[in-house]
Amino acid sequence: MSDVATKIATFLADGPFAVVGASADREKYGNKVFRAYLQRGLHAYPIHPKLEEIEGRRAYHSLTELPEAVRAISVITPPSITERIVEQAAAAGVRRIWMQPGAESAEAVRRAEELGLEVIAGGPCLLVAVGFRES
To answer: For the whole model, what pTM was predicted?
Structure first.
C-alpha cells in the first residue's frame, strides 16, 4: 500500500469526522464530501458558519460547537480559510486533516505538520477515494 493509501485508510478508520465547508447545495463539493461520509455510514458533522442544517442534519458553525471531539476533518474551504482552520483543528484535538483539492496551500500544510497533524493534501479527493455515487 502506498504512503497516501495508508494515510487514507488510517484517516477513514479514525472518526468521528467533521466536514469544514459543508454546503447545503448538492452541486457543491462541500455537500458531496459530507454525503460521501453518510454513504459509507460514517459519523460526520457538517460545519458551516451560517447554516443551521445540511442534508437533514444539524450544522455547526465551528469545530468548538461540536457535541463531541472529532479526530479527523475534511476541509473544503478557500486556502486562506484553511490556514485558519488548521489552527482551530489543532486546538480542538483533531489529529488528521484532509485538505480537499483546491483547499490546500503550502502554508496550511506546513503549519498543520508543524502542529503534529497528519495531512492529506495536494492529491486525492475523498470523493474518489471512497467511490462516492450521486444519489
So the answer is: 0.95
